């Protein structure tokens, strides 16, 4: 009877332990990164009543709490708005370290930037990881310093940080430290040194009537016996390439009295012209002269094509390089020639520096034959190499067409490629799926500031819960380690930026467990009262 009494006490104590765990699970149903625990029980020692029968007669000593097993199943990721909020999808833990220098581990990815620009958790513990070796401190110019404003003490920010490109991996497990996430990040400009244009030029032309001046000295004025005059002469096509039969020659006659009048003649097939007998009534015949003359002729004209490229300068400023291409008319032979003029302009459209000139010549098939505009001095320092493509070389496939070319059956389309990039000011941080902390800049570029470490354990269920959603390594869990595959550290989980992992507590299951343990508690208490009654009856038997 006494044994059953104490068995009941053990049952109450054990079920109370289970109820405590279940209640803790329920209380943390909304705790970020929380992992629920299962209560595990064991039966205790047995007393052998007799071993003479077929099966031994044994009396159990009740029940005891064996362990609380933490279950590290995946919690649901939920979108959040924190700048550094991140959830782990998979196995592993974030590492954090307090002021005492002891590492702890957590699944709570609600991180923040502290006053010293370190990445910390909600309790001020440093988030552990590896800083990029390409992340360096630099002095800032006065202009850039003004862009960043002042620090919390009202002082100008004279120093900043920059990132150069490069690949790096996490250090060793014991080499992880605090991660800096400053805002005073700056990418200096990379100066433009090379510009390449390629594509098809527009060869289209248009015609318009133009007036080409003629020298009055080349025109003969003949006075006829009837008092009229005749004007005659010849136009040389060397001087006016577009001259042709039917073009009009317009003369302006004047005399000493200031009388003026226009007369016309037309070119014949030999480009000669001769007016009709012209009546000069009203003129002073003795002072009559040709004041001016011009040929009205239809000429082929080409529109100016402009190549433009933005230039990035060492001081952070920008400028423009423009190359204007004017087709040379009339075309001589089968080749097509362009006059090229290169000029650098500031962002207000003002020409700066010296103008450079040259020419481009293409053959009848559109291949580049000649190019003598190869570079131009940059007024802001250095020079700019201009690549318009290789000239035609029959021994080199593709030459003559790898830059600018002329193909009459294709639309005009020009592609511009430049090196260099503008200065960049810090914009925002993102976290990559591998834990990389990526800084984004105003110029569209980005760089990895550091990487957040992801720790694993041989037996994660052996971790010791320390409160504040933190765990500590124990003899049962083993030491923290990184998973290495082919010599490279391989994450066992994806980092999901902008999300937080919710508690993995299943409320319906926990409420069911609570009811079950409550019934077991009630039943154990019943065994105590039953044993008590039996003892009382036994005592009463003596009376």
Automatic annotation (TrEMBL):
Belongs to the flagella basal body rod proteins family. The keyword Flavoprotein does not apply. PROSITE patterns: FLAGELLA_BB_ROD. Residues 498-541 form the Flagellar basal-body/hook protein C-terminal domain. Pfam families: Flg_bb_rod (PF00460), Flg_bbr_C (PF06429), LlgE_F_G_D1 (PF22692). It comes from Campylobacter sp. CCS1377. InterPro entries: Flag_bb_rod_N, Flagellar_basal_body_rod_CS, Flagellar_FlgE/F/G, Flg_bb/hook_C_dom, FlgE/F/G-like, LlgE_F_G-like_D1. This is Flagellar hook-basal body complex protein. Residues 6-35 form the Flagellar basal body rod protein N-terminal domain. Keywords: Bacterial flagellum, Cell projection, Cilium, Flagellum. It is found in: Bacterial flagellum basal body.
């Amino acid at each position: 009877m006494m044994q059953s009494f104490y068995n009941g006490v053990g049952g109450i104590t054990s079920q109370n332990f289970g109820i405590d765990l279940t209640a803790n699970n329920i209380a943390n149903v909304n705790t970020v990164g929380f992992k629920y625990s299962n209560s595990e029980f064991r039966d205790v020692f047995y007393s052998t009543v007799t071993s003479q029968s077929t099966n031994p007669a044994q009396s159990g000593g009740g029940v005891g709490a064996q362990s609380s097993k933490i279950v590290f199943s995946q919690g649901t990721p939920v979108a959040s708005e924190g700048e550094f909020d991140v959830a782990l999808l998979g196995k592993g833990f974030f590492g954090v370290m307090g002021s005492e220098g002891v590492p702890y581990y957590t699944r709570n990815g609600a991180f923040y930037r502290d006053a010293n620009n370190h990445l910390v958790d909600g309790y001020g513990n440093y988030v552990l990881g590896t800083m990029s070796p390409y992340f360096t401190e630099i002095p800032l110019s006065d202009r850039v310093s003004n862009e960043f404003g002042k620090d919390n003490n009202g002082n100008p920010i004279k120093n900043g940080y920059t990132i150069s490109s490069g690949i790096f991996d996490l250090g060793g497990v014991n080499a992880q430290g605090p991660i800096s996430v400053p805002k005073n990040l700056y990418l200096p400009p990379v100066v433009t040194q090379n510009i390449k244009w390629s594509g098809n030029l527009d060869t289209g032309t248009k015609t318009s009537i133009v007036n080409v001046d003629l020298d009055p000295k080349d025109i003969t004025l003949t006075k006829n016996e009837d008092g009229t005059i005749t004007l005659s002469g010849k136009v040389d096509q060397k001087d006016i390439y577009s001259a042709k039969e039917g073009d009009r020659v317009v003369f302006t006659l004047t005399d000493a009295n200031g009388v003026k009048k226009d007369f016309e003649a037309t070119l014949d097939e030999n480009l000669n012209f001769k007016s009709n007998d012209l009546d000069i009534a009203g003129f002073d015949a003795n002072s009559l002269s040709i004041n001016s003359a011009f040929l009205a002729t239809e000429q082929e004209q080409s529109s100016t094509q402009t190549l433009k490229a933005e230039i990035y300068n060492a001081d952070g400023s920008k400028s423009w390089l423009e190359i204007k291409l004017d087709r040379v008319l009339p075309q001589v032979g089968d080749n097509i020639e362009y006059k090229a003029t290169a000029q650098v302009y500031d962002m207000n459209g003002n020409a700066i520096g010296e103008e450079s000139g040259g020419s481009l010549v293409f053959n009848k098939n559109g291949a580049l034959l000649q190019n003598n505009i190869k570079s131009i001095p940059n007024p802001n320092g250095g020079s700019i190499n201009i690549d318009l493509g290789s000239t035609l070389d029959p021994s080199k496939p593709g030459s003559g067409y790898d830059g600018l070319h002329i193909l009459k059956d294709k639309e005009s389309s020009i592609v511009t490629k430049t090196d260099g990039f503008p200065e960049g000011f810090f914009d925002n941080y993102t976290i990559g799926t591998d834990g990389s902390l990526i800084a984004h800049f105003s110029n569209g570029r980005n760089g990895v500031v550091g990487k957040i470490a992801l720790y694993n354990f041989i037996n994660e269920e052996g971790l010791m819960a320390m409160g504040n959603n933190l765990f500590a390594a124990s003899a049962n869990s083993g030491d923290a380690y990184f998973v290495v595959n082919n010599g490279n550290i391989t994450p066992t989980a994806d980092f999901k930026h902008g999300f937080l992992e919710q508690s993995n507590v299943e409320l319906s299951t926990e409420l069911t467990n609570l009811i079950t343990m409550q019934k077991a508690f009630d039943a154990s208490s019943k065994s105590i009262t039953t044993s008590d009654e039996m003892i009382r009856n036994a005592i009463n038997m003596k009376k």
